[in-house]
Every structure is written in structure tokens, then in C-alpha cells.
Amino acid sequence: MFSLSEENYLKAIFHLQKHSKAGVSTNALAEEMQTKASSVTDMVKKLSDKKLVVYKKYQGVYLSEAGRQTALQIVRKHRLWEVFLVEKLDFSWDEVHEVAEELEHIKSEKLISELDKFLDYPKRDPHGDPIPDAKGNFQAANKTLLSNLSKGEKGTLVGVKDTSSEFLKYLDKNDIALGKTIEVLDKEEFDGSMLIQIGDRSLRVSTMVTVNIYIKI
Amino acid sequence: MFSLSEENYLKAIFHLQKHSKAGVSTNALAEEMQTKASSVTDMVKKLSDKKLVVYKKYQGVYLSEAGRQTALQIVRKHRLWEVFLVEKLDFSWDEVHEVAEELEHIKSEKLISELDKFLDYPKRDPHGDPIPDAKGNFQAANKTLLSNLSKGEKGTLVGVKDTSSEFLKYLDKNDIALGKTIEVLDKEEFDGSMLIQIGDRSLRVSTMVTVNIYIKI
DNA sequence: ATATAATTTTAGACAAAGCTAAAAAATAAA
DNA sequence: TTTATTTTTTAGCTTTGTCTAAAATTATAT
Fold first, then answer.
1. What is the ipTM, given to two decimal places?
2. Of A30, A78, A202, B74, which has the fewest beta carbons less than 10 angstroms from its beta carbon?
3. How many CB atoms lie under 10 A from the CB of residue B123?
4. Domains of chain B
5. Rounded CA gap, B167 and B173, in Å?
6. A89 to chain B: which residues are within 8 Å by CB?
7. pLDDT tens-digit map of B27-44
8. Is B108 within 8 Å of A102 when comparing Cβ atoms?
């Protein structure tokens, strides 16, 4: 159907699209894809010919409905494989991304529907991100960044924004995990750092941490 | 490490090598790879430069020890994934090959060692073929073709040579499966067809069938 | 043993996806 | 509103793996 490269571009545009309703710029896409702007222009033209994106010179690129559906299916596969790796193969949440990047491109409808069943139709991946269903539907959680909470507020950790191995290992080390209850004991307005209560311990965390943790109140 | 294409060539040479101790011919490899002889020559030169095969112009190609080990690891991955698909995802044995062709190229040591553990270190794939261990060791079963048995002899079905969907579906339809006991009730010397006892039924099968079923006596 | 046939290799071309360097367009600054 | 800067596109080249057509080699058959 689509080449490896085409699929990766669609996924990248999808992820960049989320953050702003404007078109995705060539440079942003080049950065995300770890490639050069000229290569992006070439590929974007190709995707445009295939009606997967809407593209006007110098105006950035948008996913078409077909492109969005394709991207959603890749995201679905990526996240299902992540669940598989963590739940069945004892991977930790900081190890799954790389492998899932490869597994997401395996082409078999049956494989994914059976995997979904085998995993008992999970709704979220190990980082708390929602898994689209076969039709591309998923509910974006009503979540907010920990940094938005005020002193005294509390909620449940439902996701992370930064999924880098370094950040996830930091969380593991400090016993910060999905599903834990976090309460803001104190917030330092000067630098945004917080003193939080998590489980039976309290901990001081920097802004780098608070802007990368999603909380459901 | 190696490209998709390189891996597939190594695997193809490995499979063709098994059948004759002579070098694998360019044409045979082209046939196996569904490509042209000229393309094969190019690739074989490349593999030779990388010391994965031994190649002399017009003399066919042989796997080097490094090439053999690489091929064995690909075969290992292919067969482990086949077990996974059949045992965990309810695939039937005629559906697994295509998908395993893709899965076998995923690059992660940990993925394969964990999968092996998850499947409880299977020794054979769903077609009865042995699964090499992490070091590339596997025991070739002492098996023979059903066609080699004489009237009155019996044994256990331990594998199939032809793994095409058509053949496997024929076997399923006639309730011929791995592990079943087969006895040769009668053998027609003229065309090699046999009357066999399998389970509580007897069945007449053609040579096309008897030369594609492996029996352990 | 020589002619014919089959196999294999070489030479040159092509598509995909990337790159560099230069030109063009858009944006920001003076 | 010009000028300067940044962004984007174009043009042309590279690599990987393929192809076709022609040449070279090996095998087969008379």
C-alpha cells in the first residue's frame, strides 16, 4: 500500500498537526523526520499526488481525511505493539518505542485485529496515550499538565508527554507511574518547581518534570 | 546491520543450500527471489564483499560461516513468529508464512529472546520445522518422506515439505495434522499413490502428497 | 569436436529516497 | 519600503536494488 517512508511521514505530520491547527511547516517536518527540508518537499509532493495530504507551495502541509485515517492506523498499531511488549514480553515502558517503530509497519489486518483481541482490547498504551480502534476512533482524555495544577489540587497520573528513555527512567527511579495519585503540596512560583505527594512519599520536582506529566483531576 | 534485501537473499541461499551441497546457482536464486538473474549477480557480489558468501564467477554461491549464522537467526525469528501467530493469535498454519516474512526482519535481540521465553522455548514451528536457538543450533529431526515408507510401515507426521496454503488447506480438510500416526495400508507401485490409515479413517493419497509429508518412524 | 543452447555476467538505465548548493519566496528588521 | 534573514523550493547528484539487452562463459548435443 504505502512505503515505509510514506507511512513515517504521515505519522509525523499527524503528531505535529495535533499541536497547532495551522499547516505543518517543511522545517518542522524535517526536524521531526531527522532529514533535510529539500527531502521533505519532495516527499510532501508525492503524498499530495496520492491525495494523502493537502499541500500548497510555501503554505505548509495538512493531512487529508485519507491521510489522517492512514496515520491513525499506524498509531493504532504502534500503541498496540507497545502494550504487547510491556504486558507480554516484560519490556519496560522506556524500551518499547524503538521496537514499536518497526512493528507498526507490518502489513496484516488480521494480525492487528487478533493482537487487539489477544491484549483484550486495551484503551491506552503504556504511556497513557489512547489507542484508536479499527475505525480510527479514540477518546482524547480530559487531562491537564501537572504544571497547571495549583497548591492543594490533586489527581491521577494518566500519561506522559515526553516519552524519552531518560525521562521514563527518571520516573521509574522515583516510583512515579501511571495510575498513581499526585497532590501538589507546594508550588514555587519563581521557577515552577513543585513539592508533590505521591504514594506515601513527598518529592520536589522541576518544571522539566511538571510540564511532561498529564494529570486527570 | 543488513538490509531487508540482503537478509532475504541470505535466507534464500540457506534454503537452497540445504538441498544440494553444490553452490547455489544464479538462476535458482533468481527463481527463489522472484527476480532476474542479473539482479542476483549484483547482490551476490555485494554479499561477497561483505564476506557473507563465497562467490566465484559462474561457479554459484555458498554461504560463509558468518552468512550461515545470519541466515539461521532470520530462520529462528521467522519460526518463532509463526509459533506466536498460531498459538497466541489463532492463525491457522496456512496463514502464518506471509506475516512471518515481515516479522522476521524486526531488529531487536531482546524482542526475540523475550518472545522465545514467552512461547516457552518451542523446538518446532507449526509446520514441524526445527527452530534454531540463539546460538544457531538446532537438531535436524531423523525424519523421512512418507513416500519412502513401504506397505505395513507406520510413523508419526512430524513435518511438511510444501508449506503452500493450498497444500496445508488440503491437509486440514482431510484432518491430517502434525503428531498424527500414519500407517501405509497399501502402496501402488505404478504411480506411488498410497492408501493410508490416519486416526480412525483410511484415505488414498497421491504422490504429490506423499513426497511432501515428513514421517518419524 | 564443434555447433547450439542455456546460463551467467556486464553495461547502461530507472525509480525511490535521500543529499548539497543555489534560487525563489516569505518574513522580519531597519 | 527597501534590505536582510529565514524558510522553502528547485536542480542536479548519490545510493540501493531493480531492470533490459548484449556479451561472455559453460553445458549439451550432434
1. 0.87
2. A202
3. 12
4. 4-63 (1.10.10.10), 144-216 (2.30.30.90)
5. 10
6. 111, 114-115, 118
7. 999 999 999 999 999 999
8. yes
